[in-house]
Amino acid sequence: MCFRVKFYPTDPAALKEEITRYLVFLQIKRDLYHGRLLCKTSDAALLAAYILQAEIGDYDPGKHPEGYSSKFQFFPKHSEKLERKIAEIHKSELSGQTPATSELNFLRKAQTLETYGVDPHPCKDVSGNAAFLAFTPFGFVVLQGNKRVHFIKWNEVTKMKFEGKTFYLYVSQKEEKKIVLTYFAPTPEACKHLWKCGIENQAFYKLEKSSQVRTREQRWLSTVSSSGEHLGAAAAQGHPRVFQRPPIAMLSPAGPLCCCLCVTEATPVPSPTGEALEGQEWRVGEDLGVENHEV
Question: How far from chain centre, in Å, is Cα 222?
Answer without folding.
Answer: 27
